[in-house]
Design a protein that fits this description.
about 350 residues, alpha/beta, Nucleotidyltransferase, domain 5, five-stranded mixed β-sheet, 10 strands, Transposase_DDE, Transpos_ISL3, ISL3 family transposase, Transposase_HTH
């Protein structure tokens, strides 16, 4: 056992290190700490000085490594009767959270590592259970981002991301100009947008100028209800993505009407129709797509409309963009009922923005 003193590396104010043991072979350092009697115990919740000590207890805490040596601190602490809180609480010793198994500085370092590494990698590096690492990281994230910051929010973007497998989504609200995440909703329901607007003051709502989002009706209704003066913007990705769903509906409808021979051609064509032509690399897929378009005039027309729809977002002049939307919407007369519904929504947005 080494006699090397490592006490200067533990400048905790409200405790005294009474014993140190360093085991180089096992790469472990074990310290014993007790409360400093010069300080009266204080409540960790309200900071009040204790009038009565309820009982004494001990806990093993993990601290920052010293090189490759893992440091453990066996700390004695007191549970006190706090009159303002009217309950029994753990005293605040200044270097760990009540009921935590790691020190403040180790927790802060773990959080920093989680910014660049996965939870599993951080847990493996420190030899700590991954659930503990995740709990620590969540604590810091909630402390930093729990409150929604609505200041200087003029242009907003709304999108959703899937969580794991299945139809589980998170609704993400961004500051369009800076890319800052403003809020994350736990679900994607018609009530989700309303919770965001409900947290804003009237002045903050009036400061909003535009919202970029997809064409989901609950989003549109929420904007009209809470901020009717705000302009709704359908960006290129969501506009074309929504039309992709229309293409799939048209394909299914045409498949139901097709003969047995034509159904063989239509079968397995879903993703061929959704892909851009330049992204279809395999020869057999290109030939399948060509055969499909020559077979079905409706599907061919829908794909032409898709290419023309993407072109609308290339205009820099509002006048020419609106004219292109009018021309595209009129093309619906020669196509399919699902396209008509989509075109009506696009045209309605175009008219309301004037």
């Amino acid at each position: 056992m080494s006699t090397l003193s490592i006490l200067p590396y533990f400048p905790f104010q409200r405790v005294r290190i009474t014993k140190q043991s360093v085991f180089p072979e096992a790469e472990i350092s074990q310290l014993t700490a007790v409360p400093d009697e010069r300080f009266r115990p204080i409540c960790h919740a309200c900071g009040s000085k204790a009038q009565r000590i309820y009982r004494h207890d001990k806990r093993s805490l993990r601290d920052l490594n010293l090189g490759s040596v893992r440091v453990w601190i066996t700390c004695s602490y007191r549970k006190i009767a706090c009159e303002p809180c009217n309950r029994i609480v753990v005293e605040d010793l200044g270097f760990f959270q009540p009921y935590s198994r790691v020190t403040h500085r180790l927790a802060a370092y773990i959080h920093e590592r989680c910014k660049v590494l996965t939870v599993t990698e951080v847990a493996k590096h420190f030899g700590i259970n991954w659930k503990t690492v995740k709990t620590i990281d969540t604590f810091f994230l909630e402390r930093q981002y729990a409150q929604t910051e609505y200041q200087n929010l003029r242009i907003r973007a709304v999108d959703e991301i899937s969580v794991k497998k299945g139809q589980r989504y998170l609704t993400v609200v961004l500051d369009y100009r800076s890319g800052r995440v403003v809020r994350v909703g736990k679900e994607r329901t018609k009530e989700t947008p309303g919770t965001f607007f409900a947290g804003m003051t009237e002045e903050q709502r009036q400061a909003l100028e535009a919202i970029a989002m997809d064409m989901w009706d609950p989003y549109i209704h929420a904007v009209k209800k809470y901020v009717p003066h705000v302009k709704i913007v359908f960006d290129l990705f969501h506009g074309v993505s929504s039309f992709g769903k229309v293409i799939d509906k048209v394909r299914n409808a045409e498949y139901q009407k097709a003969s047995k021979e034509d159904k063989d051609v239509l079968k397995g064509s879903k993703y061929l129709l959704l892909k851009n032509k330049r992204n279809i690399r395999r020869k057999k897929h290109r030939e399948h797509r060509k055969q499909l378009l020559s077979l079905n005039e409706t599907i061919n027309t829908v794909l032409i409309l898709k290419d023309k729809l993407k072109h609308i977002w290339t205009y820099t002049s509002r006048t020419w963009a609106r004219k292109a939307i009018d021309e595209w919407s009129h093309a619906k007369l020669f196509c399919h009922e699902y396209v008509c519904k989509y075109a009506y929504k696009i045209q309605l947005r175009n008219l309301e923005s004037r």
